[in-house]
């Protein structure tokens, strides 16, 4: 069994009622992942449609964050959620236990020039755990992966394009150097909101195919999401469908039932 974990977080991807006739069926690897995943609950007893701020806090902090604040909160966490992230995020837990972790996404240089406090949950986790953000320099040295996988949308300068295969190799290289590696892909949620850019998912599909074909036994893989969206193009909104919890090279007992149980599953798998 593995002693390292690679966690691929895909924003806005749930399990549709019928995978084989769903529009996602044109993406073979994503379809296989959805079919072989355990469905887990992103709503968690709170009225309304699940959102990223609360869903991601639940995922990475091991608590029912939506219940904690009494609602589903959209992308950027409010003060109450930030307090939870500060106290309970998985990066800080791993740091306390002397485990090496990495947020493998490279940030644009211009991101840090902004005064804004509107960060996603993963960015807040890096801030609270004093993780050194990966940047363009890491991207150029193949020590980071850009959020779109291929660097096509990199906005600040001249970064060579990467094939999905090379990006998968780079992510596996990073994963071998850390106990826990997180990669976040959010173009899926954007595409779901726009309903028209679904072909962007083909890069994700190719990337996941390469990654699954190359992953060594000592890296445990988790692929999951915070809420549905892209699987249902009849609306531009999130859905209440169960999200996939996919694993490879990891224990199959005690799989989580909802987002709040994912962090404990990871810590158990790392024997912490
Ligand atoms: Zn969204």
UniProtKB/TrEMBL annotation:
Keyword Manganese applies: yes
Top-rank taxon: Bacteria
SUPFAM superfamilies membership: Alkaline phosphatase-like (SSF53649)
Domain Metalloenzyme: 165-247
Pfam families cross-referenced by the UniProt entry: Metalloenzyme
GO cellular component terms listed in the entry, alphabetical order: cytosol
GO biological processes: metabolic compound salvage; nucleotide metabolic process
UniProt keywords, alphabetically: Manganese, Metal-binding
Transmembrane segments: none
GO molecular function terms listed in the Swiss-Prot or TrEMBL record: magnesium ion binding; phosphopentomutase activity
Similarity comment text for this entry: Belongs to the phosphopentomutase family.
Protein name listed in UniProt: Metalloenzyme
Organism of this sequence: Muiribacterium halophilum
């Amino acid at each position: 069994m593995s002693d390292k974990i690679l966690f691929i977080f895909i924003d806005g991807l749930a399990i549709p009622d019928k995978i084989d006739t769903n529009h996602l069926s044109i993406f073979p690897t994503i379809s296989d992942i959805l079919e072989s995943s355990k469905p887990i609950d992103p709503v968690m007893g709170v009225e309304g449609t699940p959102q990223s701020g609360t869903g991601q806090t639940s995922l990475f902090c091991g608590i029912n964050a939506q219940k904690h604040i009494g609602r589903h909160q959209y992308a950027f966490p409010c003060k109450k959620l930030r307090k939870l992230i500060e106290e309970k995020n998985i990066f800080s837990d791993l740091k306390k236990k002397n485990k090496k972790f990495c947020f493998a996404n490279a940030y644009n240089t211009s991101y840090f020039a902004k005064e804004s406090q509107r960060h996603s949950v993963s960015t807040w986790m890096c801030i609270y755990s004093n993780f050194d953000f990966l940047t363009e320099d890491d991207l150029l040295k193949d020590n980071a992966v850009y959020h779109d996988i291929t660097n096509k949308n990199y906005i600040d300068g001249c970064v060579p394009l990467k094939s999905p295969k090379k990006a998968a190799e780079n992510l596996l290289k990073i994963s071998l150097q850390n106990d826990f590696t997180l990669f976040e892909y959010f173009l899926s949620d954007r595409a779901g909101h726009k309903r028209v850019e679904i072909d962007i998912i083909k890069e994700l599909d190719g990337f996941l195919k390469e990654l699954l074909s190359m992953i060594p036994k000592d890296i445990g893989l988790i692929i999951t999401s915070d809420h549905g969206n892209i699987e249902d193009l009849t609306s531009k909104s999130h859905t209440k469908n169960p999200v996939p919890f996919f694993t490879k090279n990891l224990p199959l007992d005690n799989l989580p039932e909802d987002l709040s149980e994912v962090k404990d599953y990871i810590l158990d798998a790392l024997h912490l």
